[in-house]
Q: What sequence folds into this?
């Protein structure tokens, strides 16, 4: 079956630091890949997506590239802000229409 | 426009009681999904609806769990004889449709219902 593995948290960074959260997946076929973010006390929000190999999703300074050869979709941001503190989930959408999520990574950014 | 809404936002119940959780999807969205977010298991798929029918119930953890959708809109997730391990945040999502190509099948999530079983 489909599965997503993302780096365990928590991750604590200082403001303006570089962020990488690793995500790898196992899936049959050609899934779409997503990063969702959950801010404290709020629901899940789609951060970015990529629907085919070599696509780069980007939003709010975050980027992730769909790498089929390494089955990865690592999330990066060049300079994090305190407001980026949240839980980040990597997810895939396979042919069975349901999202499969990683376990989430808690990011805390200190001023 | 209005997003996905869920009620109640919090529910505390005693073990053995039945609970009903409600989801109002985005107007016009034909597909609706239920997920569960718990500390031990992360985010798990429970069930999805296309219109009023549920082609995939594979994630329902036991026969104590059931869900229905009426009028192609509101959905109710019912948990009978609740157990402590049912404590979790129950998330609902909707999408415009379920397409053979999943490229744009973006799911929009509600704020969730936090269920605590004492």
A:
């Amino acid at each position: 079956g489909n599965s997503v593995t993302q780096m365990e948290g928590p991750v604590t960074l200082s403001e303006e630091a570089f962020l990488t959260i690793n995500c790898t997946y196992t899936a049959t076929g050609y899934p779409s890949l997503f990063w969702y973010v959950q801010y404290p006390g709020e629901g899940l929000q789609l951060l970015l997506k990529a629907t085919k190999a070599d696509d780069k999703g980007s939003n709010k300074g975050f980027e992730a590239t769909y790498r089929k050869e390494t089955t990865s979709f690592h999330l990066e941001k060049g300079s994090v802000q305190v407001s980026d503190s949240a839980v980040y989930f990597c997810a895939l959408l396979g042919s069975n229409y349901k999202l499969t999520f990683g376990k989430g990574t808690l990011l805390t950014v200190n001023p | 426009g209005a997003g996905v809404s869920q009620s109640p936002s919090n529910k505390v119940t005693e073990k053995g009681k039945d609970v009903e959780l409600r989801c109002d999807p985005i107007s016009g969205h034909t597909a609706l999904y239920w997920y569960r977010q718990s500390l031990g298991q992360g985010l798990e798929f429970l069930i999805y609806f296309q219109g009023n029918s549920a082609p995939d119930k594979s994630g329902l953890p036991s026969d104590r769990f059931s869900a229905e959708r009426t009028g192609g809109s509101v959905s109710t997730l019912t948990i009978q004889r609740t157990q402590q391990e049912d404590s979790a945040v129950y998330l609902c999502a909707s999408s415009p449709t379920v397409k053979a190509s999943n490229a744009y099948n973006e799911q929009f999530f509600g704020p969730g219902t936090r269920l605590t079983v004492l």
In short: Chain A has a mean pLDDT of 93. The interface with chain B takes residues 31-32, 36, 42-46, 49, 51-52, 89, 91, 93-104 of chain A (CB under 8 Å). The two ends of chain A are 41 Å apart (CA to CA).
